[in-house]
Design goal:
The chain is globular. It contains five helices and nine strands, in the order E-E-H-H-E-H-E-E-E-E-H-E-H-E. Helix 4 links the parallel strand 7 and strand 8. It has one domain: Rossmann fold, CATH 3.40.50.2020. The chain has a seven-stranded mixed sheet, sandwiched between helices. Strands 1-2 form a two-stranded antiparallel sheet. It is about 30% helix and about 35% strand. The relative contact order is 0.17. Bound molecules: adenosine monophosphate. The site of adenosine monophosphate (AMP) has 16 residues, from strand 2, strand 7 and helix 4. The site of adenosine monophosphate has 16 residues, from strand 2, strand 7 and helix 4.
Length: about 170
C-alpha cells in the first residue's frame, strides 16, 4: 500500500551518480497541501504512542522532524554529521556504498529511558538509520519506531533492520 503523496515525488535518473534513481522531495515540499498531509500522517501515528522526543537525521530528516516535534509538543534532538555538534557527543561510523560516514548525537540529548521516534526522509540500505538508532541507545533513549516518508524496498533496508519497528508512507 502506498500513498497519494507519491504523485508529488520526482524521480531524477542518474543523480548524483550514474545508476541512482534519486527521489526528489522538493516537489512535495513546495506544495503546501502535500507537505501538510505528509506531516499530519506522522502526527496522527505518533500522537498516542507516548513519545518523549523526535530524533531527526541531518539534513532532510530535519524537514519532517521539526514540524512533527512541534505538533506533538515535544523536543527535537538532531543527529548530525561529524563535527557539527558543539558539546560532548557519541559517534557511530557506518559503511556507505563507497567508504564510511560518521554521525553524532549529544551525550545529554535526553533523559534515560526516553521514548523516541527517529525520522529521516528516505530508507535506502538502512545504514544511516541503523547508526542513528545505535546513537539513540548509547545516549540512553529507547527507539519506539523509525519513520520515513519514502522506502526503497528493493534495497532491503527493512530486512537489515528486522528487529526494529519501521514506518514508511511511500514504498517503491
Ligand atoms: P541509507 O543509509 O542507504 O538507508 O541511505 C539513506 C540516506 O541516503 C537518506 O538520508 C536519504 O536521504 C539518502 N538517499 C539514499 N538513496 C537515495 C535516493 N535514491 N534518493 C534520495 N535520497 C537517497
Amino acid at each position: 500500500m502506498t500513498s497519494p503523496l507519491e504523485a508529488h515525488i520526482r524521480n531524477i535518473p542518474d543523480f548524483p551518480i550514474p545508476g541512482i534513481q534519486f527521489k526528489d522531495i522538493t516537489t512535495l515540499l513546495r506544495n503546501g497541501a502535500a507537505m501538510h498531509q505528509a506531516i499530519d500522517v506522522f502526527v496522527e501515528r505518533y500522537r498516542s504512542m507516548h513519545i518523549d522526543a523526535v530524533v531527526a537525521i541531518e539534513s532532510r530528516g530535519f524537514i519532517f522532524g521539526a514540524p512533527l516535534a512541534y505538533a506533538l509538543g515535544i523536543g527535537l534532538v538532531p543527529v548530525r554529521k561529524v563535527g557539527k555538534l558543539p558539546a560532548d557527543t557519541y559517534q557511530v561510523e557506518y559503511a556507505l556504498e563507497y567508504g564510511t560516514a560518521t554521525l553524532e548525537i549529544h551525550k545529554d540529548a535526553f533523559k534515560p529511558g526516553a521514548r523516541v521516534v527517529v525520522i529521516d526522509d528516505l530508507l535506502a540500505t538502512g545504514g544511516t538509520i541503523a547508526a542513528a538508532c545505535e546513537l539513540v541507545e548509547r545516549a540512553g533513549g529507547v527507539v519506539v519506531e523509525s519513520a520515513f516518508l519514502i522506502e526503497l524496498a528493493f534495497l532491503g533496508g527493512r530486512e537489515k533492520l528486522a528487529n526494529r519497528a519501521i514506518y514508511t508512507q511511500i514504498t517503491y
